[in-house]
Amino acid sequence: MSEQVVRVENLRKEFPGHRGAATVAAVDGVGFELASGEALAIVGESGSGKTTVARMLMGLERPTSGTIEVCGRERSGRPSTAERRRRAREVQLVFQDPFLSLDRAQRIGSAIETAIRLQFPVGRDELRRRTSELLEQVGLLPRHAELFPRQLSGGQRQRVAIARALAAEPSVLVLDEAVAALDVSIQAQILNLLSDIRESREIAYLFISHDLAVVNQLCERTIVMRRGKVVEAGATRHLLTAPAEDYTRRLIDAVPRPGWVPTRSRDLAGA
Ligand SMILES: Nc1ncnc2c1ncn2[C@@H]1O[C@H](COP(=O)(O)OP(=O)(O)OP(=O)(O)O)[C@@H](O)[C@H]1O
User: Fold this and answer.
1) Residue 260 has pLDDT above 80, yes or no
2) Which of 13, 24, 95, 179 for mutating ligand 1's site (highest number of atoms within 8 Å of CB)?
3) The total number of structural domains that make up the chain
């Protein structure tokens, strides 16, 4: 059996209400496990708590209660600088908009080199070798290393963001709406790329999306969140064809797209 790389138990995050309003439980009793090499999706409508789960996993937000274990170590307390670096090597994040996360003034090659150097003390030649290997792995050419983010297309920029995340050789990649801003055909290319990467290295994905059709192309398992809670979980294919919850059904019907005919959603819409 594959090793569990993420174990989340009874996770809760409360935010203070705005101007004296009641506390908001953005995440409420969420639990899941993620094995090495597995792709798990978290889906839910806007505001259901998906990003807050991801931010807690990344250490960007502190849980109110519950436990997060990554690579066998519990993530609690305030980490030292060395510990923070080690955690970054375990989990990396790719956002929806790479333009915001990439430095506009830094060439692509240099951005990837910086990410490698942050984690590994490698010499000049090794740094070059790893950088071109990463560019090649995400389907970019050596000449792209010399370009700035604005000189690339949206899909190419997302490839750079993925290469930069892979530079740390993480065990887990969290993809937060990572293909949501791309055209459908480019989305498909990036999803194929993520599949290829998963075949070539030991990596697990936590794929956050509001779009069950997209999730179905990459993730074998899905958890469905609503108002901070997990309302349904299981094999993605099963959730798509036989959802137990009306809420999941509505999520399926909410994303019509050309060429995608959910097996039974038309029948279910009237149910
Ligand atoms: N820093 C914060 N302070 C107060 N409330 C917050 C904060 N971050 C998130 N929330 C609230 O927590 C809830 C869940 O938000 P979250 O961003 O996790 O949802 P989401 O499912 O990722 O939504 P989206 O798909 O729109 O990004 C929302 O009600 C949101 O307003």
Assistant:
1) no
2) 24
3) 1
